[in-house]
Design a protein that fits this description.
This protein is mostly beta strands. It has two domains: 125 residues, Jelly Rolls; 97 residues, Jelly Rolls (Sandwich), CATH 2.60.120.10. The protein is built from no helices and 22 strands. A hairpin with a 4-residue loop joins strand 7 and strand 8.
């Protein structure tokens, strides 16, 4: 039997640090909700806005797949593997923290916000060698279709992570309908609406709403208005 869970935008945890405004779909830092610890292997979905010139100082991670998706502005990244990079809208950054890394993230610009999603996924392999990957996608390739941005396979479209997970971005015109079939049995899908209004299997979702669905093989998306949506297919059982 199909199951689903709705997380309206205004029910998310909120952290206002002045220089940082962060909305947490799942428990994170000072936001703790025992009913919202994770969705399957999807552990963190943070919707962050960082003021000009500000950012996160060097901090550690281990045994987590970390995906950053810039929405606006330029985010500068430095890490203990020697990577120095700037990511912006159209880019996707992936880090496999594995045995352990440290990194920092700063707003590159002194005159505008940077907005990005930080997503953590539990890996299916522990203590892997840390790795960094960054790709640049053609934004026009998600117009009225689903553009794959993350997969488990290094030779597939998008970046890859140590998990049987597939992420897609779609930018849909009002009235556009699409079908999505899950890639792997036992997976569920969590949809996050970046902008606009969308029906997913008949459930109306608005900007920044999240909706998880599992025990299903396929479902329909219908854009009620011009909509941008992120779909995250992940295993529901954590290894």
């Amino acid at each position: 039997m199909e199951n689903s869970i709705l997380h309206k935008a205004d029910t998310r945890g909120k952290a206002d640090h002045g220089w940082l405004m962060s909305y947490h779909t799942f428990s994170f830092a000072n936001y703790y909700n025992p009913d919202r610890m994770h969705f399957g292997a999807l552990r963190v979905l943070n919707d962050d806005r960082v003021n000009a010139g500000m950012g996160f100082g060097t901090h550690p991670h281990d045994n987590m797949e970390i995906i950053s998706i810039p929405l606006e502005g330029d985010l500068e990244h430095k890490d203990s593997m020697g990577n120095v990079a700037v990511i912006k809208n159209g880019d996707v950054q992936v880090m496999s923290a594995g045995t352990g890394i440290t990194h920092s993230e700063y707003n590159k610009n002194s005159n505008q916000l940077v907005k990005f999603l930080q997503i953590w996924v539990f890996p299916n392999k522990r203590n892997v060698k840390p790795r960094y990957d960054q790709i640049t996608l053609k934004v026009e390739d998600r117009h009225n279709t689903l553009q794959q941005i993350v997969s488990p396979n290094a030779n597939d479209a998008g970046a890859w992570i140590h998990q049987d997970a597939w992420f897609h971005l779609g930018k849909l015109d009002a009235g556009k309908k699409l079908n999505y079939s899950l890639k792997k049995k036992g997976n569920g899908l969590y949809a996050f609406v970046l902008s606009g209004d969308l029906k997913l299997n008949g459930q109306l979702l608005n900007t920044r709403d999240g909706f998880g669905i599992w025990n299903t093989e396929a479902f329909e998306l219908e854009a009620v208005s011009g909509t941008e949506v992120l779909l995250m297919e992940v295993p529901m059982a954590i290894q």
